[in-house]
Amino acid sequence: MVRSAFSHLELDVSSPAQLILSVAVAGAANSDTLTVTQNGAPLTIRDVTDQHSTRLHLVDAAAGRVIVDYTVRFEGELPAAEIDELDELRYIRPSRYCESDTLGPTARNQFQGLTGRDLLAAVSSWVGSQLFYVPGSSAPTDGAVATMLARQGVCRDYAHLVVALLRALDVPARLVSVYAPGLYPMDFHAVAEAFIDGDWYVVDATTLAPRQTLMRIATGRDASDTAFLSTRGGAVSIHKMEVGAVVDELPRDDVNLMVKLA
What we know:
Number of strands: 15
Strand order of the largest sheet: 4-3-7-1-15
Strand content: 35-45%
Oligomer: single chain
Shape: globular
CATH architecture of the largest domain: Roll
């Protein structure tokens, strides 16, 4: 399998700020290129490695337009995220956007008696059938509870609700930002990962892209850990954004299969 992806960001910086970019594929440092320029001149990029091989890139920018271009191409599979015993504890707790403590009664009532793979399939199917995918329908600060009440959202909202319901049932679960060949409309994508039978498996209740083609960018508790852009200092707005991802042969995804992200 040959996969490639790109992202192009045009950012307006109102006053000096530090940009924290999370657009690089985890584990693909030898297969990708990142450039950040301002007024045609390259800016210095500092690499920082976060947990699960998440690659952050820090850039200090003056006021003005900043251009970010990232490309990646690789063949085969990327290294899977290492399994850490602490992850089973870290990803069982409620977090800012995944209020598993609040959703406990709903989860227990809806999925009583289900475990393992049957539970993953049931949660994914239930979330997919309960929500409508509506671009622009949710706010950046909406969590799983707000999503369930609104019954609509985008990929991160679906993933937050899946993660919260699984954690409420004592299944470690986390959010992963990805490039997703086959996704429509094309954008950065978010999915859930759940830990069962000694490994992490992808759960994507949107079913908008084949899970076998996904490319891991960042992994964390929820969107607060996986945002493609965060800043320190001056205000920064997005003037333009383009994302693309392709694969040499798009596979058919079977929702009944267990798929690991690699």
